[in-house]
Amino acid sequence: MNLKSFTYPEKEKLKSRKLIKKVFEEGKTIKKYPILIRYVEFENETHNIGVSVSKRNFKKAVDRIRIKRQLREAYRLNKETLTQTKGKYAIMIIFIGKVKLPSIPLHETVRTLLKEIQ
User: What's the CATH code of the domain at 23?
Assistant: First the structure.
């Protein structure tokens, strides 16, 4: 494995409003508590990833930011599972749980869900 494969560069971040809207309107969904992943295939040289945590479930910004960091880290460490897919995807990782979790269960859940993306 190359150390470059463990980075999360700016070009992999999902920022386009049009693409985010497309992910939520046309995308497929896979779910394993406490994470829901919505994704849609699109033409690009890399996968684009976005992360979301509900303000309804976590009132304090500190808690939301911590979970977002955990999810981004889980993706960063497990993104080689996406290299085996044929297409490139815009992916939104959404935390739907109501309590904070340690990093290891989140990493395992993200790994299994990323393997399910065709």
Answer: 3.30.230.10
What is the four-CA torsion angle of 104, 109, 113, 114, rounded to 10 degrees? 0
Question: CA 70 to CA 104: how far, in whole Å?
Answer: 9
Query: Domain range for residue 21?
Result: 3-116
Q: To which residue do tokens 């497990």 refer?
A: 78
pLDDT tens, residue by residue, 7-33: 888 999 999 999 999 999 999 999 999
Question: What gap in Å lies between CA 105 and CA 72, rounded to an integer?
Answer: 14
Structure token pair of residue 72:
């981004």
pTM: 0.92
